[in-house]
Each structure stands twice: as structure tokens, then as C-alpha cells.
Amino acid sequence: MKNLGKLQCNLSYLALAFLLVLIPVDMFAQKTISVSGVVIDENNDPIIGAAVQVKNTDTGVITDIDGRYIINAADDAILCFSYVGLKSVEEKVNGRTTVNVTMMTDAKMIDEVVVVGYGTQRRGSLTGAVSGVKGQDLIKTKSENPQNMLTGRIPGLRVWQKSSEPGTYSNSFDVRGMGSPLVVIDGIPRSVEEFQRLNATDIEDISVLKDASAAIYGVRAANGVVLVTTKKGNSGKTEVTYNGSYTVQQPSRMPKLADPYETMTLYNEMAMNNINGGNWVYNEDDFEAFRNGSRRTTDWNDLIIAKTAPQTQHDISISGGNDKTKYYISMGYFYQEGIFKSG
């Protein structure tokens, strides 16, 4: 009996030592709410496929075709918004159920984006050879042909002009000497002639795919691809743009013609050194005829070719639109005279 009493006392002591205090769990738990909103750019256009993520978590969604999203987050969480070409944005929830965000253009990142096939990629992520030139840099060279404006601007692209006759557009170009490349304007394959007659002020940018980057276009892209993107309207007020220029063309160098005395002397020297025996082509009477004025010399360069030839160009464009409709209308006038006085 004594041992049993002692055991009872020990059990009573152990029960008091492991006494638990229960505290309600929701006293320290964060409250989770459903947050929704719309992500737009600086032109009030919805951003499709923008990433929305709860900071420091793996919870994230992307925006739909209308730029809308729905995500579950703590009432004091931070939402991170990101998209290629736009500056990332962080927004504190602060108990709100609706969080709308406007993302601004990241100029540095946009410069790194080039057209590849039917989409775009950042230049730093490319493994293929892709070169590009912006339309605003293209028009710095005054020419009647946008193909000529590419001369010296894209590595590996050769451009040469077969004729200078106004209106002929007889030019050729190739990529790394592999033949005429495929020309794609706004996603549609076009002929080289259509590209040559395109108004340069309507071009947004040009990208040249030189190797495996052009594989998306199939066997026609074996010689490379020239991708041309034209300008499009923007949401906002109507903008009217005018660009005009007047250029005077002048031959960089004309061949210097020999006078009659030099010409006859050269012919005589050539004839006298003939291997079959020498003889005079022109005698002293021929020289004397030009000295006394009975025969006159003619400067055919001055008679046929003008010193300068004018060229003028006028372009006007109207662009604008709203959230649903955008428009871009342009018209151009170009006039170029030939270097021959006959016209």
C-alpha cells in the first residue's frame, strides 16, 4: 500500500509538469484575399501576358487578352508586375481587392529588341546573326530608294546600283554574297521591286536575318531574310507629320577628256608602235586645221551632261486612334531629274 501511494503521487506531479496552454491560431495568421485588376501601358492599351507575382513567393499569374488578372495574396503582400520592354512595377496590396497598374516603356530594353521571324526577341538572348536599323536612322541618307539607304548600315549586306536613270530602281543586294534575300514586309513576302518603291518615311525598322535565324521562313530564306516593319497608328490625339527636302545632285567626278592635239598625238604614237610597222594616222595638216580654226573642238561632257540635277521629296502622314481602333495614313511625292540636259 505504501508503494501504491507513492506511485500515485508521482503521476500527479507529472501531469502538472506537462500542462499545455492552447492559443487560437488565427491570432497571428495573415489574412488572404483575392486581388484583381488591369495592367495597361502608357498608351492605355491592355498588356497581354504580363507577369503578376507575389513578392518572395512562387505564386504568380499572367494577364489575359484584356490585361486583367486575379491572384490570391496576403492583405499586406507586395505584387510585382513585369513585361519585356517595360519597366517593372511593385505595388503594396494594403488590404485592397483591386490594384490597377500602368507600366512605362523601358527605352534601354526596347533598343535591345529585334524582329525575328513572326515575333521579337531581346538582342542579348539571340544566338543567330541578326542586324537591324531603325527607320529614323535610315532616312538620314537622302535617296530615292530605301534599298540604297541600307548601304554600309548592316554588316554583311551588299548593295550595288546598276543604273542611275531616274525611275528605273535597277538595284541589287545580297547577304554575304549568297544571292538575293527574301523580303518580308509586315509579315507578307514581297518582291525586291516592291521594297525598292516603298516610302522610306513609312518604315519603322528593318532587320536582316543572316543564318539559322531565318529558318522559320523555310527554303526561300536560304539567302537570308530582310524583315521590314512599317509604322502604325498610336492611341491618342491625331498627329500630323510633314517631311520635305530639296536636294541638288552633282556628279562626284567626271572623266577629263583629252583635247584634239592630245588625242591625235596618242593615236599617232599607238600607230607608230604597231608591231606590223608604223604609219601616221594624222599628219601636220590635221593639226593645223585646229590651230587656224577651220575645225573646232567640242566639250561633249559640257554639251550633254548638266552640272547639277534637282531632286525634291514631300511626305505627310496622319496617325492616331483609340483603345479599339488605330490608323496611319501617309502620302508621298518624289521628283528627280536626270543628269542629262536632254531630260
What would your notes on this structure say?
By secondary structure, this protein is of the alpha+beta class. The chain contains eight helices and 19 strands. The longest helix is centred in the first third of the chain and has 16 residues, at 2-17. It is elongated and about 115 Å long. The N and C termini lie far apart (137 Å). The model is unreliable at 1-19 and 121-128 (pLDDT under 50).
**DSSP summary, beta strand count:** 19
- The percent range for helix content is 10-25%
Share of β-strand residues = 35-45%
The H/E string reads: HEEEEEEEHEEEHHEEEEHEEEHHHEE
**Rg for CA atoms:** 39 Å
Shape: elongated
Give the class from helix and strand content and strand pairing. alpha+beta
Strand sequence of the main sheet, in spatial order? 10-15-16-13-14
List low-pLDDT spans: 1-19, 121-128
Calculate the terminal CA-CA distance, rounded to whole Å. 137 Å
Largest sheet: 5 strands, mixed
Mean pLDDT, rounded to whole units? Answer: 80
Per DSSP, the total helix count is 8
